[in-house]
Amino acid sequence: ADSLRTLAAGVGLRIGTAVNMDELNVDTTYTGIVAGQFNTVTAENVMKWDAIEPSQGTHNYGPADQLVAFAKAHGQLVRGHTLLWHNQIPSWLTTGVTNGTIDNAALRDILHRHITDEVSHFRGKIWQWDVANEFFTDSNPSTINPNDFWISHLGAGVIADAFRWAHAADPHALLFYNDYNIAGEDGSNAKSDAVYAWVRQLRSQGVPIDGIGNQGHLDTQYGFPTLLTQDLQRYANLGLKVAITEADVRTFIETTDANQTPTDNLATFAQPYEYSQMLKACLAVRACISFTVWGAGDAGSWVPGTFMGEGYADIYDVNLKPKAAYTALQQDLTLA
Ligand code: G3I
Prior knowledge:
The chain has 13 helices and ten strands. By secondary structure, it is of the alpha/beta class. It has a single domain, classed as TIM Barrel, CATH 3.20.20.80. Strands 1-2-3-4-5-6-8-9 form an eight-stranded parallel barrel, surrounded by six helices. Helix 10 (228-236) packs parallel to helix 11 (270-284). The site of ligand G3I has 8 residues, from loops.
C-alpha cells in the first residue's frame, strides 16, 4: 500500500508528525518513517524558547535549522511550534521575573524581541506558526486563563500583539492559535465556545490570525469528541484555516512496561477508531489543511511520563512497527 504522504497528497492534505531531533538522522528506522510517511513536520521541542535561547542573548538555532533543512530535502512543509506558551520558557527569564530584575515593561520587550528574532530567523521557511499555545484551561474554560504566566504579567492583549509581531517578521507565514479540547466536546463545549468567541473578536479587530490548531490529544477512556467536524467547520466559517496539530490517542497500559502493553481492548478498537474519526473530520472540512500526529513511535511519546498507567498512544509501536491506527489512517486516505 502507498505511504501516508502519497495518499494525503492525492487528496490535497498535508500529513505530518512532530519530530524528535535527538532521533532524526540517528535512528535510521525513525528517520525513514519521518521522510517516507509525512509531508509536513513540526519541531516537537527544538523551536521552543528554552531550546532557542538557553541563556539570554545566546541563540541555539542548530537543531531547528537541521529540521528545516531535512524538510526541504524531503519536500515537507514546516509547522513552527511555538512562540508564546507558559511552558518551556528559559530559566533565565523566569528567574529574572521572580527576583525582580525583569519588570513587566522589560518582559514585554524581551518577548517582542524573541518573537521578532525567531520568526525572522526562519522567514520564508515556515508554513504555519503556532504563535500562541494553550491560553484556555479545562478547569476555567470560558475565559483566557488570568493566572497564565504571560497574562498575569502582561494582560490578555499580549496574545494579539504576539500575532502582530509575528506577522511583521514574516508576512507570508500562516499564524495559528493552538490548544487542546477546543473542538468537539459534547456535553459542555464551553472551552470551544470561548475560543470561538475570542478568535472571532480578534478577526473583527483585524488581528493577523490565520488558523486554529486543534491539538487532538485524545484518551480512549473518554470516547470520541463527536462534535469535532462541526466545531472545526465553525472556526472555518470565520475565514480561518484549521489543522489537527498533535494527534495521539492514549490508552491504559501496564505501568512501567517498556513495551506499553495495553491492558484492555480499547487499544484494539477505540484507538484506531478515534484516529480515523479525527482524520475524517479534517477531510470533511475544506479549510482543514494538515493532520499531524504527535510523534511516530510509542517509545518517544510524552504520554507515559505525564499520565501514569497510560501510553500506547502513537501510530507505531515501541519498535516502530505500524499499528492498527496506522492502517486505519492509510485506509481513510485511500477511500477519501
Ligand atoms: O532537554 C532536557 C534535557 O536536557 C534533560 O536532560 C531531560 C531530563 O528530563 O529533559 C529534557 O527536556 C525535556 C524536553 O521534553 C526535551 O526532551 C523535558 O524534561 C520534557 O518535559 C519535555 O517534554 C515535552 C513537553 O511538551 C513539555 O512541555 C514533550 O517532549 C513534548 O512532546 C510536549 O509537547 C506538548 C506540546 O508542545 C504542546 N501541547 C502538549 C504537548 C504534550 O505535552
